[in-house]
Amino acid sequence: MSKPIKISIISMLAIVISFLSWLLYFQKDSINVSVTSFAANGNDKEDDTKYIQEAIDFISREGGGTVIFPKGTYYINTIQSIRLRENITLKFNDGVTLKAIPNASPNYEVLRIHDVSNVSLKGKVEIIGDRDQHEGDSGEWGFGISIRGSNNIYIEDPIISDFWGDGIYIGSTNKQDYSKNITISNPKMSNNRRQGISIISAINLKIINPIVNNTNGIAPESGIDLEPNNNQEYLQNIRILNPVLNNNKGYELLIYLENLENSKNDVSITVENSDRIIGDIRVEKPESVKGYINLKYGK
Fold this sequence. Notes:
Blueprint: H1 2-29, E1 32-34, H2 49-61, E2 65-69, E3 72-76, E4 82-83, E5 88-92, E6 96-100, E7 107-114, E8 117-122, E9 125-128, E10 141-148, E11 151-156, E12 158-161, E13 166-171, E14 179-185, E15 188-190, E16 195-199, E17 202-208, E18 211-213, E19 222-226, E20 235-241, E21 244-246, E22 253-256, E23 267-272, E24 281-284, E25 291-295
């Protein structure tokens, strides 16, 4: 009679251990902190970059979780940037603004998502650049959100304006020639200097309901620009759904694939309800570039 009891005890221990492991994982995954717990203050004009980064790094050391931004305006040193880590969610309460502190650098970003995975930005956030206060006159690479060489990124409802370069930039790094599995929902871009959204290298990118207008300042000045830098980069399974693009000084939609000439990487680009684009669309696709570009019109 003892043998069945022994097996039952072992089975029960296995169940208990499994449950405890699940519980620890669940608790770890649900860790959250407020940036105000690390001395960030959305009610003054002091630099909050260090304190926000400390909150992110703390959550990162714990294995991931959520960093919460209470209502307020947070001033960001864009040369340092807010650097996202693996398995981090930024949760923006209503009424949050990230404001770039003016500088003279030709390149910068407010939110830097480089060589990481599993990052989410949730809640409506306004991200404002320094184009009217910029202290230099060179360069064109000051970005609101920079996504490079990263995977599994989800962004919802950003409102991005007044940047020295692009509202959002999506591309590669030395570690990875693309960003992969990216979803950007309901972005609104306005009065950015170079582009609203630049798509340089991406696989499985979906942009839902983008509204982009009044891009102006330095070429190409387009609403959305798909333009790889070299023929090692990717534009595969790119889907732009229901774009509203208007009053951009360059093209509303620019698909410029000259730098992909003789690439081994096929392209696959779909724009749905492209009749909502008010203005010029330009497509440049060399014969050596394989794949398709599908501009679908609404009913």
